[in-house]
Amino acid sequence: MAPATGRPPHTTDRGGYFAVVDPSTGEAFDEAPDRRPEELDPVVDRARAAWPGWRADPAARRTALLAAADAVEAAATALAPLLTREQGKPLTESHAEVARTAARLRYFAELDIGAQPITDDRPVHSRLRWRSIGAVAAIVPWNFPLQLASAKFAPALAAGNTMVLKPSPSTPLATRMLGAVLAGSLPEGVLTVVTGREPLGARLASHPGIRHVTFTGSAATGRAVAAGAAASLARVTLELGGNDAAILLDDVDVEEIADRLFWAAFRNCGQVCMAVKRVYAPARLHDRVVEALAHRASTTVVGPGLDPASRIGPVSNAPQLAHVERRTARALADGGRAAAGGHRLDRPGYFFAPTILADVPADSPVVTEEQFGPVLPVLPYDSLDEAVRAANGTGFGLGGSVWSTDLDRAAAVADRLECGTAWINHHAELSLAQPFAGAKDSGVGVAGGPWGLYGNLRPFVVHRPEEA
């Protein structure tokens, strides 16, 4: 594949650019511009200058966003392989991510925001209108670069805002290409992609010209983003990850759910904020659950994402691979047992064997913290109350699931979970029309559906006296 920058790939960083690594080889294959924080000022100025014209014509916005969706679909054969090359996921998953990006543009383009009458007892006519905010900043992680970018720019642009979008330095190339694709449908300055390493993101989050900062990433970085945005009283939307628990009830059919449960944990190499990251199984079923999941872990093909045979790709970058290795080593040192995997694969690239852990203490970091990789602990429980307490016992509250043949009983248990979304007999499936939000340390604000659109707007009320 030709370099996305048009320059030969470099194995080391050079002035003004940084190397982009293929996680399936561990070697650099291209580079991206390394913007300095002071370079943001003209970018933000252009976004602010484009705002009045963009917000003024809702019909033109809708037409532009629908055209942008068509352009994204037309570019899928270029976008998807580049995404796989820099992120590592199987090519089929990259194509799905591109399709989701186009679908999200269409969904928000079609949402209608009209004026709403306010009914009260006063002799005035009051109407609520919604106005855009201004220039918005989006800071996006490396696990779903295009999908999470679109989750931010689609509602923001549909609402009449403009945006400066910063992808992760691990995965800048497909996002840059996406920005170029969208530029053919959008006026200049409406959406600008900037790439670079820190402190570029910190400067963007705290820039005085930005009125809303939307961020997806770790809780620690999210707190720093919120602190930076507070300087200018900018609004923040923070999606800060999760440690989702799956509770299996005592009537569950282990073999019937094993495939769904496995892929709810291991899709995208486990690098999904709302993936299953802990399984709680009744003590009498625990060994059967471990065996069923371990069989799938040990027989699933792990390889480069561009290989059609691969079902699980590499961990996306070297720091995350090191994190997964540390979490797993600590679990084994704590007395855990690897029923499958438990180690890095002996090959080039950032490959880690899909791992099922048993006999892990409940206070091991692989249970209490987010591992964000292809590692899944399975823990036994004696009473359902114990399982619910354990599921709710971390600082996160993004999602959770309950698995049972009795849907009413499962729903009653799901109601007890302290999270933003609970699933029954499946996990990590979201509609474009539903809200996505977390509890506790899993975030602030709402994405998705009309709620995500209103998060990019501010209310404006007009009071008019009744005619005499």
From TrEMBL:
<feature type="region of interest" description="Disordered">
    <location>
        <begin position="1"/>
        <end position="38"/>
    </location>
</feature>
<dbReference type="InterPro" id="IPR016162">
    <property type="entry name" value="Ald_DH_N"/>
</dbReference>
<dbReference type="InterPro" id="IPR015590">
    <property type="entry name" value="Aldehyde_DH_dom"/>
</dbReference>
<comment type="similarity">
    <text>Belongs to the aldehyde dehydrogenase family.</text>
</comment>
<protein>
    <submittedName>
        <fullName>Aldehyde dehydrogenase family protein</fullName>
    </submittedName>
</protein>
<keyword id="KW-0560">Oxidoreductase</keyword>
<dbReference type="InterPro" id="IPR029510">
    <property type="entry name" value="Ald_DH_CS_GLU"/>
</dbReference>
<dbReference type="InterPro" id="IPR016161">
    <property type="entry name" value="Ald_DH/histidinol_DH"/>
</dbReference>
<feature type="domain" description="Aldehyde dehydrogenase">
    <location>
        <begin position="16"/>
        <end position="453"/>
    </location>
</feature>
<dbReference type="InterPro" id="IPR016160">
    <property type="entry name" value="Ald_DH_CS_CYS"/>
</dbReference>
<feature type="active site">
    <location>
        <position position="239"/>
    </location>
</feature>
<dbReference type="InterPro" id="IPR016163">
    <property type="entry name" value="Ald_DH_C"/>
</dbReference>
<dbReference type="Pfam" id="PF00171">
    <property type="entry name" value="Aldedh"/>
</dbReference>
